[in-house]
Write a structure and sequence with these properties.
21% of the residues lie in helices and 56% in strands. The chain has 73 residues and is of the alpha+beta class. The relative contact order is 0.15.
């Protein structure tokens, strides 16, 4: 696993983005981690995406940012 980023979701959860390998395929994994006692543990909620779909996902997220700001994307 290669950790790419950690984004704070709230006081007890964070979103971790990593590149992982599963059955010979490299995937981008977005997973919610939660605080359990004194340690962070991976939750059931998340996405595992093929690397080749990331540009399309990124374009869609950019549209969401633009529309969220009141734009016409």
């Amino acid at each position: 696993m290669t950790e790419i980023a950690t984004i704070r979701k709230n006081s007890r959860e964070e979103i971790r983005i990593s590149i992982d390998e599963y059955m010979g395929h490299r995937l981008c994994n977005l997973r919610v981690w939660y605080l359990s006692g004194d340690e962070m543990r991976p939750g059931k909620h998340g996405l595992a995406l093929r690397l080749d779909v990331l540009p399309e996902i990124l374009a869609a997220l950019q549209k969401a940012i633009t529309r969220g700001k009141g734009g016409d994307a």
